[in-house]
Amino acid sequence: MPQVTSFIIADRATTPVNHTFTPAGAANGVTTNVERGATNLESKKVTLSNREVRRASGSKFKARSTIYVPIVQTQTINGISTPVVVRVGRLSIDVEVDATATDQEKKDLLAFGYGTLSSTHPFVIGIVANEPFWQ
User: Fold this and answer.
1) Beta strands in the chain (DSSP E)
2) Shared-domain flag, residues 85 and 117
3) Out of 48, 53, 73, 82, which residue is the most buried by the measure of CB atoms under 10 Å away?
4) Which H or E run contains 123?
5) Which CATH number belongs to the domain containing residue 64 in this structure?
6) Rounded to an integer, what distance in angstroms lies between the CA atom of residue 22 and that of residue 33?
7) For residue 52, what are the β-bridge partners?
8) CA 115 from chain center: how many Å?
9) Contact 73, 60 (CB under 8 A)
10) Up-side HSE of residue 109: CA atoms within 13 Å toward CB?
11) Residue 2 belongs to a domain
């Protein structure tokens, strides 16, 4: 079982910035890492889980990573300024593999998922441009 420690994720700015996510706790098989913001409202969060699901037809492993990115702005009412979450971006990645899958099969599946998130893939282009997909 891999230990979840601090990890770095680079953003996709013109000049990429590394974001360090540090452990913030674990409960019920879900670990949480955060990049602390100036306030708790501004903290980005990554959760990770991996569990075995046993069925009569065979076991499967289900893994999930969820990324939560709040956008915070300062709101001023009657001269009092407070931070407010104005929108949130969320990304969930679900992976399900049969317990009998080989390491290579799992590596290939993850490579296909990684490729889907490349900046030139139609999936990413459509999301960034807020456009539907077509063939």
Assistant:
1) 7-10, 18-27, 30-35, 44-53, 60-77, 80-98
2) no
3) 48
4) helix 122-129
5) 3.30.380.10
6) 5
7) 61
8) 16
9) no
10) 13
11) no
Supply 116's token pair.
């889907």
- At 119, list the tokens: 């900046």
Identify whether residues 40 and 78 lie together within a single domain.
yes
**Residue 20 has which token pair?**
């360090």
Residue indicated by tokens 């997909």: 133
> pTM of the prediction?
0.84
Radius of gyration of the chain (CA): 19
Q: Could you tell me the residue range of the domain that residue 52 belongs to?
A: 7-99
- List all residues 6 or more positions away from 110 whose beta carbon is below 8 Å from its beta carbon: 95
Tens digits of residue pLDDT in 26-83: 999 999 999 999 888 999 999 999 999 988 888 999 999 999 999 999 999 999 999 9
